[in-house]
Write a structure and sequence with these properties.
Largest sheet: 5 strands, antiparallel
Shape: flat
Length: 656
């Protein structure tokens, strides 16, 4: 619900790309609090091409919406919702996410995006040998692991078989089964140093030794191939319920085999999908799925079969996934996405990947040039003397008397003062990471530089609202939007869900809006063979069962009749053509190339749905009803004054 709410809020507020107008006048007041013309104009202009409802482009209507929005925010603040811990935490979380866009350098990011995109065009097949060593291992253990891999690589360089060396010596547990073979992979599938080695080593060659967080590696590139790109298919799916017994599983399997045979007999894949596929979201479209690439679906089996089809119109054999049984028809294959289509996705992935360290380092360099940094050398030397070798075993303690260290150690841009105590605390926290730089004087110097980098980023982050007006506007709008969401949840949405009496009254008043169409409980038989359907009708007249009819008509390994049973509304598939008037056996009807007959067990006339049957739509409508009345009440509760003359001036400016 929150995602939907904020999507709608963006349309109302246009929270990105602001261009502030220096001229502003009071457009309206709420309890004497002024709201200005520049904000109203900015939001309206941003939304003008986004809203589809012409009534919202009308300035009078838009002002009414805008005032209503500000009234709700005023009510939220009146109730103190902006002081709640949950609100503060979520606002802080949002600001952290938004600030990330300002903490990443575009030049370095672009270089990494270009590199990642170039690698998406290719998949690498490689084998590797790993010698494990922890990131914080002692120099002796690190050297031992490195030398062990040097010995192995020397044997390979002299002609030893890579896969056999992997089987004998690799400390990757999977090597005993796959001899180090990792199969094909592409960008972001491996840790960044491993990916770099794979993409920069020629086919048939062995890489230099390199290190990751797991230890030391060498790899051999076995092959490189083009990325498979995207594919679009149609499918027919028969669900197999979890925990289904053997009889049920066998029945589902037989049904998919029957459908496959009908397709091979020349019947329309799309028509069979409409009639029989259990994927309701695609059945009406002949089973058509959106195009997808490797790794996008939750079923590897489905992807592998889809990518195995080479020519449009090619149809797979039935196959099983974790969801049930499928048949796939290829619509088209597509090359990998263009750079422009991939750019945003790649940027987001890079920000969450170890390669983002490059971006962080560049930011540190930029901030050291942007801001002045001064160190109190006397205090720094005093702190350095307190740090002993016990820091390497996580046993170092800060001085008991910290008063001498409470003065300023670091000054950033004259206005940010950081005490020596803060640096002592930083050192204490860092020793938990098994520090290695020696001697201890060098370690303190290294930690201080990292400490300065952290403080510079914090200072920059704290001043984003001052340095970037658009950041300030976005945060202001989000503060109000988050308040509005909390208010709506408490006063409208929760009430609509929990007010059973009010919901019942609303339902009673609007019952005619929640109607079932005419429905029929029936078995429906379909075939492209009119004679077969007519035979099926004769059997039905004699009271024969579905199994009997299928046994008689689906002979010689040929599927002539397909059936579907259940309760359906009057516009389902071929029901309009059947012209059902009463219970019993219908006449034969035709739709396209198919013939149908139905055995109608029950006719259910149009009638109101029960509250449970229309609960989702009913609650949504009730929420809207409550909100419309609530805004009217807020206008009575708060004193709203609109400056009509100013608004007329704004209208003229916006309508030019």
């Amino acid at each position: 619900m929150k995602n939907i709410f904020f999507t709608l809020l963006i349309f109302l507020l246009g929270i990105v790309g602001f261009a502030q107008n220096n001229k502003k006048e009071t457009l309206f007041t709420i309890n004497d609090k002024p709201y200005y013309t520049d904000d109203f104009s900015r939001v309206y202009k941003k939304n003008l091409n986004l809203v589809k409802d012409d009534s919202q482009k009308n300035l009078d209507n838009y002002l009414d919406l805008y005032v209503g929005y500000k009234l709700k925010v005023a009510k939220a603040k009146q109730l103190g919702l902006d002081n709640e811990d949950k609100y503060k935490a979520e606002l802080k979380s949002y600001r952290t996410q938004l600030a990330k866009n300002y903490l990443n350098d575009s030049k370095v990011t672009d270089e990494l995006v270009n590199e990642a995109y170039n690698r998406t065009t290719e998949e690498v097949k490689a084998s590797h040998i790993l010698i494990l060593v922890e990131q914080n291992a002692t120099p002796a253990d690190t050297l031992k692991a490195y030398n062990k891999l040097v010995t192995i690589k020397n044997k390979i360089d002299k002609g030893a078989d890579f896969s056999e060396m992997a089987y004998q010596f690799s400390e990757d547990p999977s090597a005993k089964n796959n001899k180090g073979d990792l199969g094909y992979f592409s960008v972001f599938k491996m840790v960044y140093p491993f990916e770099n080695a794979a993409y920069t080593t020629p086919v048939g060659k062995v890489s230099n030794i390199f290190r990751t967080r797991f230890g030391y590696h060498i790899l051999k590139v076995e092959d490189k191939r083009e990325n498979r790109g995207d594919v679009q298919v149609k499918h027919i799916m028969l669900l197999l319920p979890k925990g289904a017994d053997k009889a049920t599983a066998d029945k589902v399997e037989q049904n998919i085999i029957d459908i496959s045979k009908k397709i091979k007999q020349g019947e329309s894949f799309e028509e069979l999908a409409k009639q029989l596929s259990d994927d309701k979201s695609t059945a009406s479209k002949g089973g058509l799925l959106q195009r997808f690439s490797s790794g996008e679906l939750t079923s590897k089996e489905f992807e592998d079969v889809a990518f195995s089809l080479r020519k449009p119109e090619e149809v797979s054999e039935p196959f099983q996934s974790q969801f049930g049984w499928h048949i796939i028809k290829l619509v088209n294959r597509y090359p990998i996405k263009s750079f422009e289509d991939s750019k945003i996705e790649l940027e987001n992935r890079i920000k969450n990947d170890v390669r983002s360290v490059k971006i962080t380092n560049f930011l540190h360099e930029k901030l050291r040039k942007k801001y002045s940094v001064q160190r109190n050398n006397e205090l720094y030397n005093a702190i350095a003397k307190t740090v002993t070798d016990s820091v390497y075993s996580n046993k170092w303690k800060q001085p008991q008397n910290v008063k001498p260290f409470e003065t300023t150690l670091l000054t950033i841009n004259t206005d940010k003062k950081v005490s020596g105590v803060a640096f002592l605390q930083y050192i204490a926290a860092q020793q938990k990471g098994k520090l290695q730089t020696k001697p201890v004087g060098n370690l303190v110097a290294e930690l201080y530089e990292n400490f300065v980098n952290n403080e510079l980023v914090t200072y920059y982050d704290d001043n984003l609202e001052t340095e970037f007006p658009e950041f300030h506007y976005v945060m202001e709008e989000y503060r109000d939007g988050l308040l509005l969401f909390d208010l709506m949840e408490k006063q409208i949405w929760d009430k609509a869900k929990n007010d059973s009496i009010g919901l019942q009254q609303f339902y009673n008043t609007n019952k005619n809006k929640y109607m079932w169409k005419n429905r029929y409980k029936l078995d429906i038989y379909s075939s492209t063979d009119k004679a077969a359907i007519e035979k099926a009708r004769k059997y039905l007249k004699k009271g024969k069962s579905i199994d009997y009819i299928k046994e008689k008509l689906n002979t010689n390994d040929k599927i002539t009749i397909i059936t579907k049973s259940g309760q359906f509304e009057e516009d389902y598939e071929a029901i309009p053509e059947l012209q059902i008037k009463k219970k019993g056996i219908t006449d034969v009807a035709q739709k396209g190339n198919y013939y149908f007959v139905a055995n109608v067990a029950e006719v259910l006339p149009s009638q109101p749905k029960t509250i449970d049957e229309c609960k989702g739509k009913l609650v949504s409508d009730y929420q809207q009803y409550l909100e419309e009345n609530w805004v009217s009440d807020l206008k009575k509760e708060f004193n709203v004054n609109i400056n009509t003359a100013v608004f007329e001036k704004v209208k003229k400016e916006l309508q030019l």
